[in-house]
């Protein structure tokens, strides 16, 4: 397994400018004819990629040749300056269990080409810097035949916009559309279709609506209009990730398209809205301007995540959206950055590119853009983005190209900022404060930790947004941004009394903040800060401090803290969504990471017990208020997924979880019976499971066994909400259920991820049963679907946090996988990195 390096990038000597494809679809023997218009742009051979293809014929300018085929490469030598390369191959979509290339899902044909799936369809220069126009012809005895671009007749498509192979798509099947239309700001009429299996039409309206809102938003906020006469979205049941931005033909995991109040939760609705927007926004940031090579992946992903976050803030409210995004960043990216899988936002090498669709590329990539915007200001950002679109439309670009637009548009030197793309690891910012003789002094220090392959790092540019409050909670200094560029800095203020520091407002830089702020100051921030993030963060810090001491020293929970939590819970003037966020305790994984970071070996059982005890103390304090508080969350009328109602349901669910700790599940059982939507039903269902009552699972199953997406929830909830000691057995039993199909990534993730992510104390069971269970399933699925397997293996990436016994048990499983004959490149790379 070869390592590929950024420094080895070289353009192709011979490129392809037009691709003409014809498909004769057959489950076992699909024929693909390709006619590639080729042009020389430098000296050298043409090396095409092909994987698992049965090559029928190859011809250059009409003359058949016998090319040199060396494994997955076809090498053509002595080529003219311009020529037509014709190939015919045979492939078997039905046997394609990796879900990469052309495969079948529930009788329909579909494709997934990013990153390197196109080479599993036909011989081609399968790399993003080769951009071509496409003509596609599909022959099959199926009613719906789709590809990219505009339709030119039954099963014939033309895409006028040059694109790399990874954006190619084909779909064929018995599908039905929900349709609408959109007129762009440039006056183009666009037909919009959401294609689903017959029977699912009733669940498409939300996705369609989200698409229209996304199109309008991108015109208004970024000045970007759509550029074809049709935009198709297809829902597919078997899909390795969330969705894919193929030009004019987005393919989605059905869980991110289909929604009805009866079957989807508020979280599902929010995800659908976000992902529909994300894939649509790629049309400009990814498709019209794409990546030169896969090392530049964050060029399209970081930027597009940033854009979808902006969109969701506009659609759902800034505060809760931002806090939620920060929670995701810390849960996934900070964890990745602190372990053996840490890598820069722009990596410098990889073995398997599919292993780099990570939280670092996506979420940290988005934060980097947010920092850039903070540094150059909203106007500077708009000017830089405008220059980027103008200068690079139709090109395959690099991070240097992107940053150059901002440097030019704003006159700023961004060379130090570039370190955010080059240096891995989450910077630590240490803050100490001092007040003396009317002078308030802040000492700031930054360090960037060592990560695999990187030591002795340089200081980064940190945009630090902060404000000051007085002892009554009145803001005495509104938000200011200090640009920290050195390892240490000092800020001083002349003030009559010691202020309360509100540091890192809006989480203006993705750092770990080390600041031993007093409880009194944190309580003032929690009650009064003007910035929603720092306000929430103050409550978080109070909770984390208590929970860490409870785990490490067996400390109890002080009435002062419980009172503060109760005050917020009962504050009818505060936004319900914010109250729900503020009531949620730091996750088990978050606590394990923080304990490890502070030099304490985290005990997963002790963490579980401490969190439960804290919840119990809060529940007891609020006991008599809980029914009334929940009643106040009622949302009259029919279910509406809008954020305002979702916030109330979220608070209600949080309160029900507390109530369950006191009443053994009585209120939750009643709520389950009363639920008229899936959000309330799932909240009640998981509470009943938390109470140890598993009979409810049989009822749920009887009601929903016909529905794949709802059953995914059923599978996951039982594992995630099992008592830690039972979780492995529950998961293992569910893998024997007649509806457990490991070949379906959603179902596999529901059960295996339900354990590894949903039930940490269960996964880390002291006897290692959870580790063996995960490794068994990874080895089993690896042969069929390496991408999903490799992704699930990241559950082991935090292994060095734990005690020696657990480390031994995990190492045994990692070694066992590493020693397995025929391990995929995907899983092989992950295991090797985790063991290194
Ligand atoms: N670009 C795709 C992800 C492709 C993953 C390939 N393993 C979806 C997205 O980020 O929008
Ligand atoms: Zn994306």
Automatic annotation (TrEMBL):
<dbReference type="InterPro" id="IPR045357">
    <property type="entry name" value="Aminopeptidase_N-like_N"/>
</dbReference>
<dbReference type="InterPro" id="IPR024601">
    <property type="entry name" value="Peptidase_M1_pepN_C"/>
</dbReference>
<protein>
    <recommendedName>
        <fullName>Aminopeptidase N</fullName>
        <ecNumber>3.4.11.2</ecNumber>
    </recommendedName>
</protein>
<dbReference type="Pfam" id="PF17900">
    <property type="entry name" value="Peptidase_M1_N"/>
</dbReference>
<dbReference type="Pfam" id="PF17432">
    <property type="entry name" value="DUF3458_C"/>
</dbReference>
<dbReference type="InterPro" id="IPR037144">
    <property type="entry name" value="Peptidase_M1_pepN_C_sf"/>
</dbReference>
<dbReference type="InterPro" id="IPR012779">
    <property type="entry name" value="Peptidase_M1_pepN"/>
</dbReference>
<keyword id="KW-0645">Protease</keyword>
<dbReference type="InterPro" id="IPR035414">
    <property type="entry name" value="Peptidase_M1_pepN_Ig-like"/>
</dbReference>
<dbReference type="Pfam" id="PF11940">
    <property type="entry name" value="DUF3458"/>
</dbReference>
<dbReference type="InterPro" id="IPR042097">
    <property type="entry name" value="Aminopeptidase_N-like_N_sf"/>
</dbReference>
<dbReference type="InterPro" id="IPR014782">
    <property type="entry name" value="Peptidase_M1_dom"/>
</dbReference>
<dbReference type="InterPro" id="IPR027268">
    <property type="entry name" value="Peptidase_M4/M1_CTD_sf"/>
</dbReference>
<dbReference type="GO" id="GO:0006508">
    <property type="term" value="P:proteolysis"/>
</dbReference>
<keyword id="KW-0479">Metal-binding</keyword>
<feature type="domain" description="Peptidase M1 alanyl aminopeptidase C-terminal">
    <location>
        <begin position="519"/>
        <end position="836"/>
    </location>
</feature>
<keyword id="KW-0482">Metalloprotease</keyword>
<keyword id="KW-0031">Aminopeptidase</keyword>
<keyword id="KW-0378">Hydrolase</keyword>
<dbReference type="GO" id="GO:0016285">
    <property type="term" value="F:alanyl aminopeptidase activity"/>
</dbReference>
<comment type="similarity">
    <text>Belongs to the peptidase M1 family.</text>
</comment>
<dbReference type="Pfam" id="PF01433">
    <property type="entry name" value="Peptidase_M1"/>
</dbReference>
<keyword id="KW-0862">Zinc</keyword>
<feature type="domain" description="Aminopeptidase N-like N-terminal">
    <location>
        <begin position="99"/>
        <end position="152"/>
    </location>
</feature>
<dbReference type="GO" id="GO:0008270">
    <property type="term" value="F:zinc ion binding"/>
</dbReference>
<dbReference type="InterPro" id="IPR038438">
    <property type="entry name" value="PepN_Ig-like_sf"/>
</dbReference>
<feature type="domain" description="Peptidase M1 alanyl aminopeptidase Ig-like fold">
    <location>
        <begin position="425"/>
        <end position="515"/>
    </location>
</feature>
<feature type="domain" description="Peptidase M1 membrane alanine aminopeptidase">
    <location>
        <begin position="206"/>
        <end position="418"/>
    </location>
</feature>
<dbReference type="InterPro" id="IPR001930">
    <property type="entry name" value="Peptidase_M1"/>
</dbReference>
<dbReference type="GO" id="GO:0008237">
    <property type="term" value="F:metallopeptidase activity"/>
</dbReference>
